[in-house]
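cron nightly-structures :: item 1 of 1
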Amino acid sequence: MQVTINIPEDLAKLIGTDQADIERRVLTATVLEEYRCGRLSHGQVGKLLGMNRFQVDAFLKDNNVPLNYSIKDLEDDRRTLDELALKK
């Protein structure tokens, strides 16, 4: 899907140096906000921004966004690790 927005030229100059820079900054800001609100997962952030898991972690940290990692996520991860340990 392609989304087009209109930004007045004087404001566009404040946001970025060229169209590609502005597009990247708008995408980045949108992705950060959607992750903060819980509408995007960690993996979806990576897919949208072309980043691997570790790059997403660094990106979120650099932007002061905590990981969305709940107690349920921890319990699921522990269960998975236990299952993997039993397979050895």
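cron nightly-structures :: done
The chain has one domain: 9-86.
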